[in-house]
Amino acid sequence: MDDHYCGIGYGQTAGRGFTLLEVLVSLAIIATVLVSIIRLQGQTISMNETVRFYSVAPFLAQSRVAQIRMESDSFMGEDSGDFGADFPGYIWQSRVQPREINIEDNGEINFLEAGITVRHSSWGLVYEITRQISAKNEESRP
To answer: Where are the transmembrane segments (predicted)?
Structure first.
C-alpha cells in the first residue's frame, strides 16, 4: 500500500465544524422564536389581568348594590371609595338618584336608580352597571 496516501479511511469522518453562516442563521432563528415567546407571555399576562378584572368586578358591583338596597337613604347622590385590602387597586363610584314612572290609572311608581362603576387603578379597566331599586315607602300601598 502507498504510505503517502492522505485521504480519510473507511469509517472516519472529517473534523469539520459549522460555518459562520450556519451559526448566524441558527442564531437568527432562535432570536425570532424567543422574541415571539416573550411577546406571547406578555399578552397572556395582560389577558389574565383582564379576565380577573371582569370576573371580580361584577361581584364587587353587586355587593355595592346590595349595600345600597339595605341602606338606600344614606347613599343618595354620588360617592366613591375602594374595596379595602381584600381587593387592592379596585375602586368604585356610585350615583343614586330617585326616579318615578307616571302611570295613568295607578298613579306613580317611585324607585331609585343606582349606577355603579368599578375600576382598577393600574389596569385601566372599567365595569359599569345600573340597577333599579324599589324605594322605601312610608305608607303601604293597597
So the answer is: 20-38
CA distance 45 to 25: 31
Are 98 and 78 contacting, i.e. CB atoms less than 8 angstroms apart? no
Contact 50, 125 (CB under 8 A): yes
Q: How far apart are CA 136 and CA 129, in angstroms?
A: 21
Please state, as a whole number, how many other Cβ atoms lie within 10 Å of the Cβ of residue 98.
Answer: 11
Instruction: Provide the percentage of residues in the chain whose pLDDT is more than 70.
Output: 85
Give the rounded percent of residues in the chain with a pLDDT score beyond 90.
52
C-alpha cell at 50: 383582564
Q: Point out which residues pair with 94 in neighbouring strands.
A: 79, 116
d(Cα 94, Cα 78) in Å, to the nearest integer? 6
Quick one: pLDDT band at residue 115, thresholds 50, 70, 90? very high
* 95 vs 105: CA distance, rounded Å: 31
Residue with the bigger pLDDT between 127 and 68: it is 127
Under 8 Å between Cβ of 47 and 41: no
